[in-house]
Amino acid sequence: MKITLYGKKGHAYSVAYRNFLKSTELSFTYKDVYDDDDANKHTKELYEGVIKYPTLFVDEEVYLTPTSETFNKVMKDLKLRG
Questions:
Q1: Which pTM was predicted?
Q2: What is the CA radius of gyration of the chain?
Q3: Which of 14, 26, 48, 55 is the most exposed place for a label (fewest CB within 10 A)?
């Protein structure tokens, strides 16, 4: 399973989702959309020219600006616990 999270330093949801993923034993990739040029460009492609965050990628699934409810459901479906 491949998990990638795009976020922004200091953004509440980005920090919370990243901290949750860190608390699991699962390997994941975190990219700050303002520090990573590729993530910045990809985010603009996903959101029609706008930079939005967070964005969660789980294998081939893309969750655009997932709410806490969506994030928690995805983690539950993956059987991940912090």
A1: 0.95
A2: 12
A3: 48
User: What separation in angstroms does the CA of 25 have from each of 1, 47, 66?
Assistant: 12, 30, 22
Return all residues near 79 (Cβ < 8 A) that are at least 6 apart: none
Sheet with 55-58: strands ordered across: 29-32, 3-7, 55-58, 61-64
Question: Per-residue DSSP letters for 38-73?
Answer: HHHHHHHHHTTT-----EEEETTEEEES--HHHHHH
pLDDT for residue 81: 79
Of 2, 34, 33, 4, which Cα lies nearest the Cα of 17? 4
Digit-coded pLDDT (tens) for 17-55? 999 999 998 899 999 999 999 999 999 999 999 999 999
